[in-house]
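Review box. Two proteins, two foldings.
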Amino acid sequence: MATSLKNLSDQNTTGIADMSGFKFGIVVSEWNEEVTEALYSGTLETLLQLGANRENIERVDVPGSFELGLGAQWLAKREDIDAVITLGCVIQGETRHFDFICDACANGIMNVGLKYDKPVIFGVLTTNTQKQALDRAGGRHGNKGDEAAATAVKMLSIKK
């Protein structure tokens, strides 16, 4: 569904399991820091609202969105981590670099989840402009971080 038709912060979280015993890893790209820090704030706040314990949330920073897959893999291979959330932002530039980074990022993150049989959530914005990214990082379209946290919780509830 297009973001223009749904606010990213509006999540149906009825019927979720108790999250207090689950441990979450959050991998945050340092590139486009204004956006990724807003995504992280939304993710953290939503996880706490949905019952996760603060001491069960671990953050790892990586240089850019391309590195999210490996950062996610390092967390996902740990037996004490139940779900991994990746947060990044890739903004269209003048070259095809955007296409390569977005494709590698999405495939890398998906493959980590399949390899380790645990939720690895794609909380990466792929926008045309900085304004579009900010609109989806707590702006007029909500926060993709909220959506990523709710998705992790829902997937853990399904698995449980």
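Next protein.
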Amino acid sequence: MSDSGQVLEIYQTGPMTVLGFGGHAILDQIDIGACRDEIIGLVKQYDVEKLAFDLTGVRLIPSGLLGLLASVRNLNVEVHLCNPSDDVREVLEVTKLDEILQVYDVELEKGSRQ
């Protein structure tokens, strides 16, 4: 991500590639297009099958990012959302994204960076 001040943190833990947001509480300044390009490139380059979004510390997610999370499934990738705040979890429930994405709380160990 170029203009967003390197928001995405990418690392591998076991068979899962994890994307974190660097502890940003509000993700309103993310360039969704650049983020989408980076994620699609990552999935294709490393043949990612399981992708977890670590939402630790994130309180608010813009609607464009919610759409991106759902659309990543179209790349035949298993999508996990880890550690959403109560507010984010509520949005996932209202939008029914919690029914198509795996949502849970878990301690993720940082492995090798991509």
